[in-house]
Task: structure prediction
Amino acid sequence: MDDLLESVSESTRVCPDCGQTEHADTCPITVALRGESDADRAWFENHPMATEYFRELSSREEYLLRRLLDLPADAVPHGRVHVTQIEPGLRIRDWRAIGWYLPISASGGDRSC
Ligand SMILES: [Zn+2]
Result:
């Protein structure tokens, strides 16, 4: 039991991509977060009166969420990302509205995550 708890705890602390407890600069997760930050900054620069917007989940974010949530390979995302600008240069992204569905398998039955 203790071994199981240790292995679960360890797996949540160490990034499966870069193998560190804090993501390396070259980690795909770091790259995903940085890339979307640049895109969101550009959007707000082009819409100076806006304080929030919704957009599609990017492929980089999808990769990130799949890694963080350990989703089945056939899980399909739906929903939109809510981006709020607190002040110029400071934004938050909310992925809580992103859901995932699983295609019904050939053997039937409901699956969800
Ligand atoms: Zn990492």
About this structure: Strands lie at 52-55, 76-78, 81-87, 90-94, 99-101. Residues 15, 17-18, 23, 27, 29 surround zinc ion (CB under 6 Å).
